[in-house]
Design goal:
Length: 491
């Protein structure tokens, strides 16, 4: 029964004999699936069935299918635009955005339930702040805590209505951090932390099945220990914020806790009051975690009592009967409506192509920027190029353009009336900023398309002729919305 406190990852899309022995040895309470486990929807469903047959009915199978940047199942189900698209849509029509959030939750929940997924590790309720902060970006609903709570409530409710548990993350809110917890241990000062806690304060009333903590030192809760190993931080979630559901750690192999002894991390996370401990990648570490938990729980009766309380809470994650299935799933149309409603003109005149003469479209090569994202395939912007093909010449450049590439763009742009620069995270790139400044100085008409993060606006040079537009992502659904705006199909 001790292994049921562990939720672990497996290495491949199939269960090898070695993986089978490993799973039986640990008997985990949960298995988390990553992109490495997904080759097709059908094979994923087969894998889920095999896992249940091997481990039994207590097993909970989870995945990060947030939409936007974080998608583990890339085809065969609806790819939604991500939280910031919903947040932006709500700035224009809050009521419709809440309806769309509920529909997204229902459709995504139904599709995951059909595969056999029990838990979607979503939504993120972190709030974004200044342009220097890293890690969350478009995974956030925005900076409005009340809106984030409202949208998360609708997504979570929609999931549970269709048989899938939701998981709100990343307590206590890491929107302000300038260091991604995948890479190191950030620190949150006390100033403004109350606002970032507000969505988690509403998690219980919203019916959230789970809350995930993260690796951060939150000075307001515990100035010494990371939230991962802080009894004070977890107690604040349960007692002060009133959350009574399942509390799970983020992965205990992440960089945020890599500087600590692994045994102490496991002991600390369990003693802090987490019900489930997530060890996503390394089989040796998963076995070590099991042995540490066994020693810890056997040491005294108080820990055994705490262990039983956690098992009881984990038992509450039983498979949810679907009482009201969606009669006619229409995921793609809902996803496109969200993307279109969230497409935002951030600066300048309307970002509509003149189409009287050919323009220049400059596309970057996209790269994965965080370990939470699966590798990109190198064809990510094809749809946008195809949609605009009749009216533009297309150039591809590196995300960090060389001097030669900048000169090539400038030379080509001299012969066109308007240039469309497509950029991702360029506020952090000196060479990309140099490209923008050079084109802006030369061109009378410049349209900048920001992929994923509207905070790149801070790096756009001032200029009345520069239009800046974003759909808050780079997935095909975002590209379609941007193309629709550039071609005048939507306002």
């Amino acid at each position: 029964m001790i292994g049921r406190r562990l939720w672990i990852g497996i290495p491949d899309p199939e269960i090898s004999p070695e993986t089978s022995r490993h799973l039986e040895q640990i008997d985990p309470g949960g298995v988390i699936l990553f992109g490495r486990n997904v080759t097709s929807r059908a094979r994923l469903a087969d894998l889920v069935t095999q896992l249940r047959e091997l481990l039994g009915s207590h097993l909970r199978i989870c995945i990060d299918q947030e939409g936007g940047r974080v998608v583990r199942i890339p085809e065969g189900i609806t790819i939604f635009p991500g939280n910031l698209s919903l947040g932006a849509a709500a700035c224009n029509d809050r009521s419709r955005a809440l309806e769309l959030a509920r529909l997204q939750g229902q459709i995504s929940g139904q599709e995951l339930h059909q595969i056999g997924i029990d838990v979607n590790l979503a939504p993120c309720v972190d709030l974004i702040e200044c342009s220097e902060s890293r890690g969350i970006g478009s995974r956030s609903f925005g900076s409005d805590a009340a809106l984030a709570l409202a949208l998360a409530t609708e997504i979570g409710r929609g999931h549970r209505q269709q048989g899938v548990h939701d998981c709100w993350k990343h307590y206590p809110g890491i929107g302000p951090v300038q260091l991604d917890p995948h890479h190191g241990l950030p620190r949150l000062d006390s100033q403004g932390s109350e606002t970032h806690l507000l969505p988690f304060a509403g998690a219980s009333a919203a019916g959230a099945s789970m809350v995930m903590t993260t690796h951060v030192i939150a000075e307001r809760l515990d100035p010494v220990d990371p939230v991962t190993t802080s009894a004070a931080a977890v107690s604040y979630l349960r007692e002060d914020l009133g959350y009574r559901g399942v509390v799970i750690t983020d992965c205990l192999e992440m960089g945020g806790v890599a500087g600590f002894d692994f045994e102490q991390v496991i002991r600390g996370a369990a003693e802090a009051g987490h019900d489930a401990l997530l060890v996503s990648h390394t089989s040796a570490r998963q076995l070590e975690a099991l042995r540490v938990l066994e020693r810890l729980i056997e040491e005294d009766q108080d820990r055994q009592a705490q262990h039983q309380q956690s098992l009881t809470r984990l038992d509450s994650l039983s498979r949810i009967p679907v009482k009201d299935p969606i009669a006619t799933p229409h995921g793609e149309s809902v996803a496109l409506e969200i993307a279109r409603c969230g497409t935002t003109l951030l600066a300048g005149p309307a970002a509509t192509l003149s189409r009287s003469t050919k323009g220049l479209l400059v596309l970057p090569q996209l790269h994965t920027t965080s370990p939470v994202e699966d590798p990109l395939q190198g064809v990510e912007l094809n749809l946008l190029a195809e949609e605009l093909a009749d009216g533009v010449e297309t150039l591809s450049i590196d995300s960090e353009p060389s001097r030669q590439q900048i000169e090539r763009v400038l030379t080509t742009a001299r012969g066109v009336a308007e240039t469309i620069l497509v950029l991702k995270g360029f506020r952090h790139s000196s060479s990309a900023r140099a490209l923008v400044e050079a084109v802006a100085a030369q061109q009378d008409r410049l349209i900048i398309v920001l992929l994923e993060d509207p905070r790149d606006l801070v790096a756009v040079p001032a200029g009345a002729a520069i239009s800046v537009i974003t759909a808050h992502g780079y997935r095909p659904v975002h590209q379609q919305a941007i193309a629709d705006a550039l071609l005048g199909r939507i306002t």
